[in-house]
Specification:
Layout: E1 6-7, E2 11-14, E3 29-30, E4 34-37, E5 53-54, E6 57-61, E7 77-78, E8 81-85, E9 106-110, H1 121-128, E10 133-137, H2 146-156, E11 161-162, E12 167-169, H3 172-182, E13 187-188, E14 192-195, E15 210-211, E16 215-218, E17 234-242, E18 258-265, E19 281-282, E20 285-289, E21 310-314, H4 325-332, E22 342-345, H5 354-363, E23 377-378, E24 385-388, E25 396-402, E26 407-413, E27 418-420, E28 427-435, E29 438-446
Parallel strand pairs: 1-3, 2-4, 3-5, 4-6, 5-7, 6-8, 8-9, 9-10, 11-13, 12-14, 13-15, 14-16, 15-17, 16-17, 17-18, 18-19, 18-20, 20-21, 21-22
Antiparallel strand pairs: 23-24, 24-27, 25-26, 25-28, 28-29
Helix pairs in contact: 1-2, 4-5
């Protein structure tokens, strides 16, 4: 079949023993379906590098050894549906980089439990098309839904990806393996666990920008800092720092902007949160527990919590300063329910209860020339217009972002008190207010 270039009808491979498509190297197009099912040894699509056009449904299902779609980088046109179902070892569909969004009408990606890499440029364009119907579910974390894939499309930007099933480092041999195989990796698709090691630094992780899973750093008795994560901006899963006896602060995380949860537990040397200056978004839990030297929350200058966050601050015996702006805003938020999703107890006086934090927030001396905390936004929620309570805002820069850090609007105010949000801005938004007097971050809900 080496000279076969076109099939006017469809092509169907069922219950064959081949491992790839070598032998179809000249095939360019089919007039109907391209269906591959129940092929027990198929691992990739190598051999289909010339294939560009499927006349109807492109369907791969029940291929238990299929790992990737490598070989389909030039596939441009699928005239009806793309279907990937029940391929239990499928990890990566990044080969679909050339798909034409005007051709694909339906996308079905379901029940591929190890599928974590879906943000090929072609897939991103197809899913962004309003003409495409989708059924995406029961895949790996980064491909679990249409929204998950589109979120990954927004944050990835062509980064070099690795480790869809994650990686655990527990000794120097694991470090050496990472360096030899993944030192150029920019996006870890799975989780990264560094546990119970004797390593002293993390500089070998300096290329990592995004971790789609969790980042767990625990029980590393010789580790003194987080230096090595300087380029990391996003941890889509949880960031857990636990029982590392020598770490004193969060230096190394200066560029981290968002994570799902921040959990800091049983860190005997940490006194504050210096290094987390740019962390602005925590989606779920803020959990601070049993840190015997922790004094305050200094260093968390950009953090904004929403009334959906779960806040736990417990068993920190020296923690006495809790009137940080992000906590004051959280506990003073009128949208928050009376029964806050928060536990605050067994800290030093001043941080020993929610009422103590509120008391300190409401009575602490604030220099009005340097504080913007009193500015309010209305209406909240809003349909699109935002009014600022201060009518004399001069030379003010307003930056609007969503919770993933995507910038939606940048605007200058000079004597005006209103901005109009762009139509594509939806959900909870962060409003950054910058003047020569300081910076404040507010949140608002766009309906």
């Amino acid at each position: 079949l080496e000279s076969l270039t076109t099939i006017e009808g469809g092509i169907y491979f069922r219950k064959n023993g081949f491992k790839n498509f070598e032998g179809l190297n000249s095939l360019v197009s089919t007039g109907n379906n391209f269906e591959i099912t129940t092929n027990l040894n198929l691992t990739s699509c190598k051999g289909l590098e010339s294939f560009t056009t499927c006349g109807s449904v492109f369907n791969f299902y029940d291929n238990p050894e299929l790992v990737s779609m490598e070989g389909l980088e030039n596939l441009t046109a699928i005239s009806n549906a793309l279907v990937l179902q029940r391929n239990e070892k499928l990890e990566d569909i990044s080969a679909f980089e050339s798909l034409d969004s005007n051709q694909v009408k339906v996308v079905v990606i379901t029940d591929n439990p190890t599928l974590e890499i879906c943000n090929a440029s072609g897939i991103c364009q197809v899913l962004n098309s309003t003409q495409t119907n989708t059924d995406i579910k029961n895949n790996g974390l980064a491909c679990e839904s249409k929204d998950d894939i589109l979120n990954s499309c927004q944050t990835s930007g062509g980064l070099k990806k690795c480790l869809p099933n994650g990686f655990t480092i527990s000794n120097q041999t694991d470090v050496d393996l990472y360096i030899s195989d993944h030192s150029e990796c920019q996006e870890i698709v799975g989780s990264l666990t560094i546990d119970n090691t004797e390593i002293e630094d993390l500089n070998w992780l300096s290329n990592v920008q995004i971790i789609n899973g969790n980042l767990l750093i625990s029980n590393n008795s010789s580790l003194e800092s987080m230096l090595g994560f300087e380029n990391t901006t996003t941890v889509l899963g949880d960031l857990l720092i636990k029982s590392n006896g020598q770490i004193k602060d969060f230096s190394g995380f200066e560029n981290l902007k968002s994570t799902n949860s921040l959990i800091v537990q049983n860190e005997p040397q940490i006194e504050n949160f210096e290094g987390l200056t740019n962390l602005s978004t925590i989606q779920e839990r803020f959990y601070i527990d049993s840190n015997e030297s922790l004094l305050d929350f200094s260093g968390m200058d950009s953090l904004v919590l929403s009334n959906q966050n779960l806040v736990t601050v417990v068993n920190n015996p020296l923690l006495s300063v809790c009137d940080a702006p992000f906590l004051c805003d959280y506990f003073n938020d009128p949208i928050s329910p009376l029964e806050w999703k928060a536990i605050v107890t067994d800290n030093q006086e001043g941080c020993n209860s929610i009422n103590e934090i509120l008391s300190n927030c409401n009575t602490s001396s604030i220099d009005p020339e340097k504080s913007l905390l009193q500015i309010t936004l209305s209406p909240n929620p809003t349909a699109g217009e935002i009014y600022f309570s201060d009518e004399n805002l001069q030379n003010v820069k307003i930056t609007v972002t969503n919770l993933t850090g995507r910038i939606l609007l940048v605007e200058k105010l000079n004597g005006t008190k209103k901005i109009d949000l762009p139509t594509d801005a939806k959900g909870m938004l962060l409003i950054k207010i910058e003047t020569d007097k300081g910076v404040a971050i507010k949140r608002i809900l766009k309906r």
